[in-house]
Amino acid sequence: MARKGKVLVVDDEQGFCELLESLLQKEEFQTVSTTDPIKAKELIEREDFDLVFLDLRMPGCDGLQLLRFIKEQDENVIVIIITAYGTIEAAVEAMKYGAYDFITKPFQKNDLIRLIHKAWDKRKLLLEMSQLRAEIQERYGFENIIGKSKPMQDLFDLIRKAANSPCTVLIQGESGTGKELVAKAIHYNSPRRHKKIVCVNAATLQETLLESQLFGHVKGAFTGAYKDQKGLFEVADGGTLFLDEIAEMSPKIQAKLLRALQEQEIIPLGSNTPRKVDVRIIAATNKDLRQAIKEGTFREDLYYRLSVVTIRIPPLRERVEDIPLLAMHFLKRYAKEAGKEIKGFTPAAMELLCSYSWPGNVRELENVIQSAVFLETSEMITTKSVNYDGRLSSFSYQSPRTIPQEDEDLLPYAEAKRKFEREYLLRALEKCGGNISLTARKTGIIRPNLYKKLKKLNISVKRN
Ligand SMILES: Nc1ncnc2c1ncn2[C@@H]1O[C@H](COP(=O)(O)OP(=O)(O)OP(=O)(O)O)[C@@H](O)[C@H]1O
Ligand SMILES: [Mg+2]
Description:
Elements: E1 6-10, H1 14-26, E2 30-34, H2 37-46, E3 51-55, E4 57-58, E5 61-62, H3 63-73, E6 78-84, H4 88-96, E7 101-105, H5 109-140, H6 150-164, E8 169-173, H7 179-188, E9 197-201, H8 207-215, H9 232-235, E10 240-244, H10 251-263, E11 265-266, E12 275-276, E13 280-285, H11 289-294, H12 300-306, E14 309-313, H13 322-338, E15 344-345, H14 347-355, H15 361-375, E16 380-381, H16 383-386, H17 413-431, H18 436-443, H19 447-456
Parallel strand pairs: 1-2, 1-3, 3-6, 6-7, 8-13, 8-14, 9-10, 10-13, 15-16
Antiparallel strand pairs: 4-5, 11-12
The structure holds adenosine-5'-triphosphate and magnesium ion (MG).
């Protein structure tokens, strides 16, 4: 038989304890009982109980104090108060201190069975929720934002400060740098963490839809609005609203958003009545908002409202020291997921990862590692698996190093020549800051030939 929860019965009447225990056992619960409040305290300290039946009136014991003690040990324990007829007020008082329900002596067997199953369902739900909360906490804790470089250390400082302040935050960074991760870390480390973080991406919804999503609508506001619908501002009330890709918002929505920020209230579509909301806004963009202001596509006043705290996440190429850490982090995650025992990277593979410019930033690195884990058959990730699609062989401006070789055995002449040419040209490009004309002049190779060679050698350069 499947084991159900563990129940503690605390009542000064031995006979009552026995009766309750036998009923609970028939319902497959594991039980412990005591008539002594001091013993009860010891048991609660020592063992984990799912449910506690507690008599509030026992000689030499303040029942409410014992209740508080139980809740301090584990706030998710379900406490059911046992009360005698005439002491119901005390039981009601106990519910204010976190008791779940009460039963009155003498009780109907069926009532008790119904109550115990309801309580057990509640306990399971609370455990599930606290498990989920722990998982979220773990996923969005600072520990999960990987990075030891100076820019990342500065970023951690800022995130911590932002988490502790109620200010609006603007996160700027290229695609894949971790804007959403940072937004969630701020929320889950802020005093609002027990409330929701609601994410909405302004780039994926067309204007009217976004407007009604954000601010809600009343019945009949537009064709298809059959009933009142709460907007995300209200859904996130007490919590955080993460507005992603903020630069994509239309002027009309920008105006409404500005109003919501200024007044702390929203007006649903089709309504005239403002509703108060208490929402912390975190906005993100991979666009240069100052530029957007100059171009007239983004309101300056909104920008100042949003950017009370501005967090810029540097692109990965500006923090190459973080690449090995991130690579190991993703390797561990995906190897575990795939059930593979992969210990690390060969030095050549790691060097290759560090020499690439990562235009897709951390997300691209994550994808590359995930594929490499999938492809790898040995216990170290090799250059072949990280560079399965050849993308890492392309020349990068920021960190133009030569492509490392897996082994340095004597190469056939043609291959050695190619290798030399490649390294020579990469070095030349590096010295010339990636400028093709200058490289052509310095190496004495005419421009069209230089382009041809670079192409043949799989060195890609952005034309400037
Ligand atoms: N410093 C980091 N440590 C660990 N994982 C990271 C880090 N930065 C980003 N990631 C991971 O990289 C992926 C992309 O991050 P995220 O979605 O937060 O980026 P983004 O900036 O919102 O991207 P986009 O602009 O494309 O929406 C996620 O899987 C995230 O967990
Ligand atoms: Mg994002």
